[in-house]
């Protein structure tokens, strides 16, 4: 990790989450942060993503007593959610450096919080127009667009499963709402569309956020910034995936992970009824985010 952020963190909190609903640009954001923090020249490599791994994995919970598993071999979700904070406490105790983690989990379920101000240093949340999320969700799952929309809008028990651990994703609206309510730590909300339109501007915001968060001084050298931007644009990432493959895909289909990297696909893909359903159900948050006037 960049020497500039290898510093003591107040209260010994080391964890910074990169959170989002699936198919909202989380991996692209992690590519940018990985290039920025892990290489002096700012040149991104896929292996750098190992340094911003998924928090919800068996290895973070297997040291607890009385492990509980489901029939499919995954850890029992109630067991995991009851140990979210304890697992993060252990990570903080065992690490001297800042630790970035990816998450698609909701921030709260019933009386349990995924993370809180006692263990979390801060978080970055990337949000994307739900009309485009639905399309990307369908492509990567190899499923039906109507099913993808229905899942995003209504399936409060929508889970993702990796590394023998389940994450509760819930609905698009509740996911966003649960992280919006988490206002007791520093946070940065980013729109996917803004990253597409002006990646450099968002990169500088991220650098400022991290610098303020850990009292560091990540260089704003123009050569470093240019290298980060050139090695994490979609054309470069698509080429990298074609030539070397992308082992971090959550699905086992043959659909490329870095598929298009565009916005407003919904205008030519969604039917009138599909568009009407999404916009009616999500009118309030979409208006607040500027997706609807």
UniProtKB/TrEMBL annotation:
An MF annotation (GO) of this entry: sulfotransferase activity
Regions crossing the membrane: none
Keywords, in A-Z order: Transferase
Pfam families registered for this protein in UniProt: Sulfotransfer_1
Domain Sulfotransferase intervals: 16-279
Keyword Transferase appears in the UniProt entry: yes
Record bears the keyword Methyltransferase: no
Gene3D superfamilies according to UniProt: P-loop containing nucleotide triphosphate hydrolases
UniProt-listed InterPro entries: P-loop_NTPase (IPR027417), Sulfotransferase_dom (IPR000863)
Similarity comment text for this entry: Belongs to the sulfotransferase 1 family.
Protein name in UniProt: Sulfotransferase domain-containing protein
Source organism of the structure: marine metagenome
């Amino acid at each position: 990790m960049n020497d500039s952020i290898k510093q003591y963190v107040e209260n010994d909190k080391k964890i910074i989450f990169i959170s989002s609903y699936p198919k909202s640009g989380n991996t692209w954001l992690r590519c940018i942060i990985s290039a920025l923090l892990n290489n002096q020249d700012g040149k991104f490599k896929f292996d750098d993503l190992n340094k911003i791994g998924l928090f919800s994995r068996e290895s973070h919970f297997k040291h607890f007593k009385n492990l509980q598993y489901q029939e499919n071999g995954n850890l029992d979700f109630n067991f995991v959610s009851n140990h979210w904070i304890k697992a993060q406490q252990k990570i903080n105790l065992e690490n001297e450096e800042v630790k970035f983690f990816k998450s698609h989990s909701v921030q709260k379920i019933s009386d349990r919080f995924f993370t809180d101000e006692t263990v979390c240093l801060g978080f970055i949340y990337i949000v994307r127009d739900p009309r485009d999320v639905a399309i990307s969700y369908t492509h990567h799952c190899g499923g039906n667009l109507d099913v993808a929309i229905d899942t995003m809008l209504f399936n409060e028990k929508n889970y993702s499963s990796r590394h023998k651990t389940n994450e509760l994703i819930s609905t698009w609206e509740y996911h966003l709402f649960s992280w919006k309510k988490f206002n007791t730590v520093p946070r940065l909300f980013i729109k996917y569309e803004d990253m597409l339109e002006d990646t450099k501007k968002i990169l500088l915001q991220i650098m400022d956020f991290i610098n303020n968060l850990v009292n560091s001084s990540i260089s704003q050298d123009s050569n470093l910034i240019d290298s980060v931007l050139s090695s994490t644009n979609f054309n470069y990432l698509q080429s990298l995936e074609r030539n070397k493959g992308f082992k971090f895909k959550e699905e086992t289909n043959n659909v490329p992970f870095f598929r298009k990297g565009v916005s407003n696909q919904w205008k030519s893909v969604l039917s009138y009824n599909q568009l009407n359903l999404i916009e009616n159900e999500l009118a309030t948050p979409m208006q607040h985010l500027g997706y609807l006037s």
